[in-house]
Structures are given as structure tokens and as C-alpha cells.
Write a structure and sequence with these properties.
This protein has a 5-stranded mixed beta sheet, with no helix packed on it. Strand 9 and strand 10 (130-134) form a beta hairpin. Among the domains are: 11-79 and 230-421, Neuraminidase, CATH 2.120.10; 437-517, Immunoglobulin-like (Sandwich). By secondary structure, the protein is mainly β. The protein is globular.
């Protein structure tokens, strides 16, 4: 019996030691080198003098970087596309939500239109024509009742987000709409670095360090996942519709612990915070400071939670501060069609500094649950890792179906940048010229709008007519057919501000042009 007890003791001890984390035992995602090269950032003429035209980033071969929008942004965070394919961005500190149309597809925002104010949101989504804005303690529903492009009506859609004292600690909230299952997901970060009071315990529902799920109408709040310290980035897998997220790990355990994770968020899943990290690993030093000391003792219930942790899809460099997360699509180069883009805002207490870049996680396909590698896709914002000197901090990410990757910086230099690979083949180009060629200007327009027509065949045989419709399809303006002229000027003084469709008919040709009226 004595030897049996000794054997059991040694077995339990070995199991405990094997569960403790050491740097060498962490299953980090392999790193791939894409051989990035320095590329000068293209600054359109309209932004020269607002942002330096001597900036460089590092990109894969053949890729370019261009400023899509800059000027007056205070703290731009996350993007979303409107139903009419206009990029919208939250400017969290100014309380504005901006529309950034690019109707001529030249990768430069035509203008910036304020569509909502006094909304200090980090994350927004469109649903059924309304904007849903995630603030620290509530979610607002913004409506544009008169369809003029400004969302003047607001109501509280979800209240009491994060419970009492919701403003402490991590204050950003990210919202995702699952239109297939009619659900909403909301991430709510922790109140502090590591908090004993945020340990998951029986018979107490946590309100922080969680991802919540709601019905599509904002009812039915329930905890979807726990132990999630701060999932800033969340998105749905375009194939499986599973929720994916990234996480900002805790501080004061050294340069490389804990790694940041990117993973599927599973219903009922526990992701480690505040007692563990990575894959079923405890922190190596609970006596480092009072934050970690306060987590002791590790209880049997704590241990059961840690044993339930799944291997993450990816573990990447600690203190990278992952933000926006976006799945790629087949409009990108073949090498980047199956994977995930993630923005790293960058470290604040690591030496040398890390992050300040966009990475790509390579997958076999979108059913894959483990990243094959992580690779730098856009770097160069961090100019000196020893001093931590940097000229931008990437946060927001968005893709389109033309192979463009949009990224935003919320500090030092604030901007929206577009990364793209320009094609030279006429058949492979993302931007195919329309025949006839039509230029509508200015955008936005005020009292008059001009139309320039070129490359029109058989000019003398074609009549020209112009009509303007609002987003509900109502006809607001129409000219009668007239003989062809290459330049037309139309009085729009009686049309209110907003987004419209202009339909130009030249003989048997019919061309649609989105326009903005902003007075």
C-alpha cells in the first residue's frame, strides 16, 4: 500500500508539472517569410500636405499601398460595408461615423460624409438598413428615417452591457450579426489585467471577459464563451459560419507569455483567462505581482476548466495586440485566397517592441481549424523595435471582392490605407472601363452636377437622357431625350442631401452612376 501511495503521488505530481507552461513547450504557429519589400506609400494629390508623402511599408512582391482617406480622424477603429457597398468607419473619440464612398473605384475616397454623431463606438454593423453601434455600456440602433443619408434617429437596442462598472478596464465592444442563425455576438473585455473576481465560478454568471449571444432582436442574452480576456476582433467564417475571434492576452509575465490566440469561439467554451493561457497551460509565475497572487489558490474547479481548453487554431507572438480580423476571398492572389488577415496594433510594455503590422494566417481551406503558418503581410509601421518608435498603429481591417485590403490606423498617424495588387492585363484587371466612358463630377455635388461623355459611338444618331432616383426607387429628376453633347450640366438645387442613383441613357445604352448630394 505504501508503494502504491508513493506511485500515485509521483504520478499526480508529474501530471501537474507537465501542465505547467514553459516557453519551449508552447505550440506556436510556424512563421513563414513572404520576402516583403519596401514600397513607398502612394499619397493622392488631395491628401498631400495632410500626410507625409515619404512613408514606406513592406509588402509582398507586386503589391502597392495607397492612402484611401485621411484628415481629421481622431481615433478610427472598425469598418463595415453598407448595403450599397460604401465603406463606413467609426471615429471613436470624435463620436462620428463616416461614410467613405469611392464611386469611380480609384482607391481614393471621393469624400467623407458624417452619417451619425455623438456615437463613441468601436464597432458597427448594418442590419436591415439600420446601423448598430457597440458602445462600452450599450448597443445603439441608428435609423435614417427620411433616407437622406444621415442616421438621425437612435434608440438603445441592448442595455447594461458589461454590468455595473462597465467602463473600467477594456472599454471597446465588438458586435457581429449572424444572419443565417439570426443571432448577435458581443465581446466584452475584462475589467483589469487579471482579476480574481473575474474567475469563472459555479453559480455566478460573469459579465466581463466573455462573449455574449443575443437573439437578432436584441433579446435572450446568454453567455456564449468565457475566459476571453479581450476579444477585440471577431468575424464569421464565410464557409462554416462559425464565429472566430482573436484575443489580447495579459501583461507582466515576460516578453513571450502569454501568446495571443486566434481561434473558433465554441458555444460553452473556456479560453483560459485569468488563470491559464495557450493550450491548458498555467502561468509560470503567480508570485510576479499582486494581480497574479490574487488568483491563488488554483481550485479543483479551476483545473477542470483548464482541462476543457481546446488547442487554438493559432498561437502568435505575445503582446502583439490583435485587432481587426478578416477572412480572405478568391479575389486575392491564389497564395492568399485561403486564410485570415489580422491587424496587430502593437505592444506597449514589451522590449523589444512587437506588432504594428498586418499578418496572414494560411489555411488549407475555410473548413480548416488549424493555421499552417503566420506571415507578415504589411509591416514597416514600427521603425525601431528597441525604442518602440512607430508611425502608425493598425486596428481596423476590411476586404472587398476586388482584391483590396483596407486597414486603418488609430494613433500617431490616423488614416485609411488600401493594399492591392494592380493587374496589367485587360482581362484580369479589377477595374474595367465602361463603354461609353462617363465621368460625373463633382462628388459630392451641391447645386449642380456635370456629366462628361467620351468614346460614344455614332454620336449623331444617339439621344441622351438623364434620370436621378433615390434609394427607394423614386424618380426625382429626369431630362427628356436630347441630341448628343459631350458635356452636360444639371441643376440639382431642389434635391436634398443623400445618396442617389443617376441613370444615363445613350441610345440603347443604359449606365448607372451612384452620386452624392451634400449641401
Amino acid at each position: 500500500m505504501r508503494y502504491l501511495l508513493i506511485f500515485i503521488f509521483l504520478f499526480v505530481l508529474c501530471q501537474k508539472l507537465n501542465s505547467q507552461s514553459t516557453e519551449g513547450s508552447i505550440p506556436m504557429t510556424p512563421i513563414k517569410d513572404l520576402r516583403l519589400r519596401p514600397v513607398k506609400v502612394i499619397v493622392p494629390e488631395k491628401y498631400k500636405g495632410i500626410i507625409s508623402d515619404n512613408l514606406t511599408v513592406n509588402l509582398p512582391e507586386g503589391y502597392k499601398a495607397q492612402i484611401f482617406y485621411t484628415g481629421g480622424l481622431q481615433k478610427p477603429r472598425f469598418f463595415t460595408w453598407s448595403p450599397d457597398s460604401i465603406l463606413h468607419i467609426t471615429d471613436m473619440n470624435s463620436g462620428k461615423i463616416l461614410a467613405l464612398p469611392d464611386f469611380n473605384r480609384d482607391r481614393v475616397a471621393d469624400t467623407a460624409i458624417v452619417v451619425a454623431e455623438n456615437v463613441n463606438a468601436h464597432s458597427i454593423e448594418f442590419y436591415n438598413g439600420d446601423i448598430y453601434a457597440a458602445l462600452t455600456d450599450r448597443v445603439l440602433r441608428l435609423s435614417d428615417e427620411n433616407k437622406d443619408g444621415y442616421f438621425e434617429k437612435r434608440s438603445v437596442f441592448i442595455s447594461d452591457v458589461g454590468g455595473p462598472g462597465s467602463a473600467g478596464g477594456h472599454v471597446t465592444r465588438t458586435i457581429v450579426f449572424d444572419r443565417i442563425n439570426n443571432k448577435i455576438y458581443l465581446s466584452i473585455g475584462s475589467r483589469c489585467n487579471v482579476c480574481k473576481e473575474e474567475k469563472v465560478v459555479p453559480d455566478r454568471e460573469p459579465r466581463r471577459a466573455v462573449i455574449e449571444q443575443y437573439n437578432i432582436d436584441g433579446t435572450g442574452r446568454r453567455i456564449f464563451a468565457t475566459g476571453v480576456r479581450n476579444a477585440v476582433g471577431m468575424t464569421l467564417n464565410p464557409l462554416t459560419n462559425q464565429l472566430w475571434a482573436n484575443n489580447n492576452g495579459s501583461d507582466w509575465q515576460g516578453n513571450d507569455i502569454p501568446p495571443e490566440w486566434i481561434d473558433i469561439v465554441r458555444d460553452g467554451g473556456f479560453y483560459g483567462y485569468p488563470i491559464a493561457h495557450s493550450y491548458q497551460m498555467y502561468f509560470p509565475n503567480y508570485n510576479f505581482n499582486n494581480d497574479y497572487k490574487g488568483l491563488l489558490p488554483i481550485t479543483a474547479f479551476d483545473s477542470s476548466l483548464v482541462r476543457s481548453m481546446k488547442m487554438p487554431a493559432s498561437l502568435v507572438q505575445a503582446h502583439s495586440a490583435p485587432m481587426g480580423i478578416e477572412f480572405s476571398n478568391n479575389s486575392f492572389d491564389k497564395e492568399f485566397q485561403n486564410g485570415i488577415f489580422v491587424a496587430y496594433r502593437g505592444s506597449w510594455n514589451r522590449s523589444p517592441a512587437t506588432g504594428y503590422k498586418i499578418v496572414f494566417l494560411g489555411l488549407d481551406d475555410f473548413s480548416d481549424t488549424t493555421a499552417n503558418y503566420v506571415a507578415d503581410f504589411v509591416s514597416g509601421f514600427l521603425t525601431d523595435s528597441i525604442s518602440g518608435s512607430h508611425w502608425a498603429r493598425p486596428v481596423g481591417l476590411e476586404t472587398d471582392n476586388k482584391g483590396n485590403l483596407y486597414l486603418g490606423s488609430d494613433a500617431v498617424t490616423t488614416f485609411v490605407m488600401v493594399i492591392y495588387k494592380e493587374t496589367t492585363s485587360s482581362t484580369g484587371s479589377n477595374y474595367i472601363k465602361e463603354e461609353p466612358q462617363i465621368t460625373v463630377y463633382p462628388i459630392p455635388a451641391k447645386d449642380f452636377i456635370s456629366i462628361n461623355l467620351t468614346n460614344v459611338p455614332d454620336k449623331t444618331d444617339n439621344d441622351v437622357s438623364v434620370a436621378i432616383y433615390d434609394l427607394l426607387g423614386r424618380n426625382l429628376f429626369e431630362t427628356q431625350g436630347s441630341n448628343f453633347v459631350s458635356e452636360m450640366k444639371i441643376d440639382i438645387g431642389n434635391i436634398p442631401i443623400g445618396f442617389y442613383q443617376m441613370i444615363i441613357r445613350i441610345g440603347n445604352n443604359k449606365i448607372n452612376k451612384p452620386i452624392i448630394i451634400n449641401k
